[in-house]
Amino acid sequence: MTANEIRSAYLKFFADRGHAVIPRANLVPKEDATTLFTGSGMQPLVPYLMGQEHPQGTRLVDSQTCFRAEDIDEVGDNRHTTLFEMLGNWSLGDYFKAEQLPWFWEFLTGTVGLDPERLYVTAFIGDKKNDIPKDTDSADIWEGLFKDKGIDAKVAEIGSEEDGYDRGIKPGERIFFYDASKNWWSRAGKPENMPIGEIGGPDSEVFYEFTHIEHDTKWGKHCHPNCDCGRFLEIGNSVFMQFIKRDDGGFDPLPKKNVDFGAGLERIAAAAIGDADMFKISLLWPIIRKLEELSGFTYDQNPVAMRVIADHLRAATWLAVDGVVPSNTAQGYVMRRFIRRAIRQALALDLNEDFLELVVPVISELYRSDFPELEARETEIINVLVQEEKQFRRTLERGVKEFNKLAGAKLTGETIFLLFDTYGFPPELSLEEAHEKKVEIDQDWRTDFDKLLTEQKDRSRTATVGQFKGGLADHSDISIKYHTATHLGYKALRMVLGDHVIQRGSNITPERLRFDFSHPEKMTPEQIKQVEDIVNEYIDQDWPMGFREVPTEQAFKEGALGAFGDKYGETVKVYTAGDPDGEWVSKEICGGPHVAHTGALGEGGKRYKIKKEEASSAGVRRIKAVLE
């Protein structure tokens, strides 16, 4: 089966078992203060796993695009990617282990057709210190499922990952008990780290064995399912949320138990073709083939460069689909870094300028049947990426000129960092230039470079402490007021500048609001004043704020505004401000929260004031405003 076939079959499999198919969430979370990106399939579902009712019921299924920038340095081997899809199904107080494990087993061995002889599973060994029992229920279910396939599955008690390397796998073992470091899930990690009131529970993973891969002893003496050598690949994990932490530190059973399941689509696809090289699957191999065609190199001649380009451009394409544009901050900075890393690797393949224009349509073609938003925005995506490519190639040219000025007789870590930090010139290029020009390279350059880079990251991290990457920094009174003010400001911007103004992002802290919007030119002082006056008039009119949940299609027909790149489910919350018996002055799709009346923004005589108007990125402007 191709990856697209596996995705479709998975959604149908669970839809046939009473699950509502929900749309994927945006890669940029809008109401999550903890992260820049949606990094897991369950992340958008956390409120519902914590007890909030989902509008589509207690059985849900989806395929969620996920992005983990922290894996960037791992890309280049045969199994790491930064962009991936998670197939997920959830039971919110409905079914539990007896249904979940057999269903996934049936999907793998029946629908996908994986050989059960290649499958191994894990379960939680228990935690005596916290009086949490061993998950024998899952082990018993697995034992029966293997038996149905004629496999006598023996059970092994491993414990920690290190214990696994010492012990290895004994003949006939299929079911492995690991400790909380491997088979327990909570947002805080191990049971002892969970705060009072936090929920968690054991999980049970499924691994696929690539029997042709020999164990690499650099990871440990013996191989086992959780070994990192590549012989075993985790392809799915069922989390059973069944405990809540008491005030005294103990654990009680949850009255309503949840199932949170996630399976890597790319990983199942690799297992389906029996190849441990993730880049051979149908969602990545066509990109590799296009790179071969354009460069004249074969995959085997430079697999690292082709893997990095394929992964990074696929990730950048999806970020563009969800409204991200290259910039020097937040999500835009990550996107810029990915595009530039891809271009850097393209030099090794002698790929000419504008090769992105030829590769992105291949990526779009891979997904458009199931995600039509790629096809709808393909031209815009290409323009964004090609513009960044042209700009960075100029950066490379400028970097070479500066190298000639700065390098001198010896290339130091400080110079390499200066070229990198100031001119965007990658360290690898500095080293290549030094070799070509026979400039001596300081043996300690890496130590000095890393030290300066760490200092820079620390400064950046300090500067963004408390920043909410998708909206509000907190739910304090002032942040809620600023959140409401963004709605009024959005309406005012469209009134003053025109209907082409579309929200491109927002960031709200107790100190100020920041709002990004599409507009081709700098606002004039007169326009800024007009926007301020309109918002302050809305504040003085003290219009009521309210919301209602309506079908998404109806919300847009009624003129509700959404943010560029956002995806919505079948129903949405629409927040309004205005005369209940007349016209609304603001109507937006939003998760909240907001003040009850717009007059609350003017308490204490405060007025809406735009403190700064500037460019955010190409075709996008940014305002920063306060209530003072």
Q: Could you please describe the fold and organization of this structure?
A:
The protein is an alpha+beta fold and 628 residues long. The strands form 4 sheets. Strands 1, 2, 3, 4, 5, 6, 7, 8, 9 and 10 form a 10-stranded mixed β-sheet that branches. A hairpin with a 5-residue loop joins strand 16 and strand 17. About 1% of the residues have low confidence. The protein is built from 19 helices and 19 strands. It folds into 4 domains: 277 residues, Bira Bifunctional Protein, Domain 2 (BirA Bifunctional Protein, domain 2), CATH 3.30.930.10; 111 residues, no CATH class; 60 residues, no CATH class; 151 residues, Threonyl-trna Synthetase, Chain A, domain 2 (Threonyl-tRNA Synthetase, Chain A, domain 2). Helix 10 packs across helix 13 and helix 11 packs antiparallel against helix 13.
Can I get a quick summary?
This protein has 19 helices and 19 strands.
What fraction of the residues are assigned to beta strands by DSSP?
A: 15-25%
- Considering the protein shown, what is the CATH homologous superfamily of the largest domain? Bira Bifunctional Protein, Domain 2
Characterize the overall form. globular
Count helical runs: 19
Q: How is the CATH topology of the largest domain named?
A: BirA Bifunctional Protein, domain 2
- The beta-strand count equals 19
Radius of gyration: 27 Å
Arithmetic mean of pLDDT: 85
Poorly predicted sequence stretches spanning 5 or more consecutive residues: 463-471
Q: Please state the second-level CATH architecture of the largest domain.
A: 2-Layer Sandwich
Helix content estimate: 25-40%
Structural class from helices and strands?
A: alpha+beta
Distance between the termini: 60 Å
CATH class of the largest domain: Alpha Beta
The major β-sheet equals:
10 strands, mixed
The count of domains is 4
